[in-house]
Amino acid sequence: MKPTTNTCAEDPVVKLDAAVLKLPVSTSADAEAVAINHESQLFADDHLIASKSSVHRRLNRPQKERKLFLVPDRKWEGQATAYGCVIEHAGAYRLYYKGWQQATMLNFADFQRQIGYGKYPICLAQSEDAVTFAKKTIKGAAVKGTNIVIDDQIDDFTALKDLREPDPHRQFKLLASRGNWWAGLTPATSPDGIQWAWGRKNAVAFFGDRCSYWFDPINRKHVAWSRNYQLLGRRVIAHKETGNFNNWSNDRATHPKLVLQPDRYDHEQTQFYGGYAFWYRSLYFAYLETYYIHHQRIDTQLVCSRDGRNWTRLCDRDVFLPNGEHGEFDAYWAVPTFNPPILKNGTLLIHYNGRPDPHAQPGFSHLPPGMGGVFALARLREDGFVSLDATGAAGIVETKPLKFPGKWSALEINCCPFNTRTGYEPMDVKVELLTGTGERVAVYAIRPSANLAQVWYRIPRDVAVPGTLRLRFQLQNTRLYSFRVVA
Q: What angle do CA 25, 27, 33 make, to 5 degrees?
C-alpha cells in the first residue's frame, strides 16, 4: 500500500485557519509600510518584523540591588513601607509610599484620635538622584512634624504629575481606594503634591482595592486599572478610562473592560493581584503582579500592547521581577512602584517593593503576621526589556517596510555581545538598508566597542535612500534590543 503524506493543504489546523478563522496570509511583498518616528523601536513583539531566523526572543530581568533604600523607621510608618510611586519634580524625585500600622486592634477612627495620625498614612521621601531617598519633615504636612502628605483611610493609591494639565492648581493627580475599599476609587488633585483636595467620592465605581492610575499619552486618556468584583469576582485587571479626570462617568459607554485575566495556561490558583501600564518610546508596557495563591507569593511579569487595550504577556510568561530567596526581604512579594522606569545614563532605574512574609490566607496561620515591606532598586539597560539574541548560528532579523521620518541623519542600533567569555567569537553585526521590495541600498558593519556598557552604535546616512526602507540585521553572538532614527 502506498504511504500517504500529509501536506500543508491537508493539515486540519491549516484548514481551520483558512476556512474558519479566515486569517489572511501576508507576505513581505504585499505588507504595508509601518510608519515610525524618532523614538526607539523595540523588538518586544513582532509588530515591526517580517521574518527572523536563528534568534531567540529573551525577557531580560533587571539587576536587583540588595541594598535597601527605604525601610520603616518612623513610628507613623508602622510595620511596613508599602506600595509607592516615584514622580520627577523640579529636577528632583519624590517617592510617595504608604505606612502600615497592622499590630493594633483599634479601628481607623479610634487609632487616629488616640495616636494623632492614621493607620495608613501616605508619606513622601525625596531624592536628588532617584537612588538615595531621605525622609524630611515637610512644610504643610498633613500631620505636623512628619512627612505625611495624606492622613486618611487609604488602601492603595497612585499619584502622578500631569504636565498637560493647564490649571497649575491641579497638576498633581492621585487616584485612591479610600474609605470603603471595594466601593470605588476617589480622585484627588494638588498644586504642589503636598496638600490634596478630594474629588467625587468613589468616582470610579466598584473598583478596588489594589489599583493603579496612569495617563495614556497616545489615546489622551486617564486610565484606572483595578479589580472589579462586580465584573468578575476574583483578582483580574479591569480597565476604565476618561478624557476628563474630574468626571469618571459610569454610563454604559464607559463601563469597565476586562483586559487581563489568568487563562488555561496558568496554574488554577493564579490570580492577577494588580498591574500598572505606561507608554515607553514606541509601545506600551505593563507590570503584571502575578499572585500564586497556593504558595502565597507575588512576582511580576511583563506585558506589552500596541493600542493600550489589547495586551500580550511576553516571552512565554517568564518572570520579569522574581521573588528573592526564602528569608530575604522580597521572598514573598516583588513588585515595581507604579511609575515608568527612570532613565539615567543609559540605565533604567526600577524601584520596587519587597515583602518577606506571605499574603494573609487560610492555610498559612503557622506563620507570623506579614505585611512587612521595604523598597529596593533594580537596574535595566536602556530599552532592555526584551532582546533578540543570536546565540550560536548567525541570526537574521528583517523588518517590514518602514516609512521613515522626513528628515534623518543616522540610524542608531542598541545592541551588545551575547557572550563575552573566552572562546566565543566577538559580536558581529551587519545592517542592510533595503528598498520596500527588498533590493539592497547599502550595508554597514558595526565594530564592537571595548566598553561593554555602550548602548548605542551609530550608522551615518551617507547614501541616498527612499522614504520607505526595510532593515535587515545579520547578527552573531549579539543581543539586539532596538533601533532609532536620528533627526
A: 115
Longest Cα separation, the chain: 92
Half-sphere exposure of 43 (CA within 13 A, CB side): 29
Euclidean distance between CA atoms 140 and 182, whole angstroms: 30
Neighbours of 474 (CB within 10 A): 18
Q: Exposed, middle or buried: residue 430 (CB in 10 Å: 0-12, 13-18, 19+)? A: middle
- The fold for domain 63-381 equals Tachylectin-2; Chain A (2.115.10)
For 20, which DSSP code? I
- Residues 6 or more apart whose CB falls under 8 angstroms from that of 299 comprise 289, 290, 319, 320, 321, 322, 323, 334, 335
Residue with cell 495556561: 265
Q: Give the dihedral of Cα atoms 361, 365, 367, 373; nearest 10 deg.
A: 30
Domain coordinates in residue numbering, the chain: 27-59+386-486, 63-381
C-alpha cell of 290?
502575578
| Per-residue confidence in pLDDT tens, the chain, 487 aa | 443 333 334 433 333 343 333 444 444 444 589 999 999 999 999 999 999 999 999 999 999 998 999 999 999 999 899 999 999 999 999 999 999 987 788 999 999 999 999 999 999 999 999 999 999 999 999 999 999 999 999 999 999 999 999 999 999 999 999 988 888 999 999 999 999 999 999 999 889 899 999 999 999 999 999 998 777 888 999 999 999 998 998 766 678 899 999 999 999 999 999 999 999 999 999 999 999 998 889 999 999 999 999 999 999 999 999 999 988 999 999 999 999 999 999 999 999 999 998 877 766 665 555 557 999 999 999 999 999 999 988 999 999 999 999 999 999 999 999 999 988 889 999 999 999 999 999 999 999 998 988 999 999 999 999 999 999 999 999 999 999 999 9
Phi, psi of 45 (to 5 degrees): -135, -170
Query: Which three cell numbers, joined as nine digits, stand for 473?
Result: 540585521
In CATH terms, the superfamily for domain 27-59+386-486 is Galactose-binding domain-like (2.60.120.260)
Closest C-alpha to 226, from 202, 198, 196: 202
DSSP 388-406: EEE-SSPEEEEEPPEE--S
Strands 478-486 and 410-417, by their bridges, are antiparallel
Is 367:381 a contact under the CB 8 Å cutoff? no
